[in-house]
Amino acid sequence: MGAAVSTFDVDLFVIGAGSGGVRAARIAAGYGAKVLVAEEFRIGGTCVIRGCVPKKLYVYASRFKDEFEDAAGFGWTLPSAPIFDWSTLIAGKEKEISRLSAIYKANLERAGVSVIEQRAQIVDAHTVKLTDGRQISAKYILVATGGTPVLEPAIPGIEHAISSNELFDVPQFPKRLLVVGGGYIGVEFASVFARLGSDVALTFRADNVLRGFDEDMRAGVHDALTHAGIKIHAGVLPTQIEKTADGLVVALSDGTAITVDQVMIATGRRPHVQGLGLEAAGVAMAKNGAIKVDHYSATNVPSIYAVGDVTDRVNLTPVAIREGHAFADNVFGGKNVLVDHSDVPTAVFTTPELGTVGISEQVARSQYDVVDIYSASFRPMRATLSGRAEKTLMKIIVDGTSDRVLGVHILGHEAGEMAQLLGIAVRMGATKADFDATMAVHPTAAEELVTMRTRTTRYERQATPGQAAQ
Question: What is the pTM of this model?
Answer without folding.
Answer: 0.93
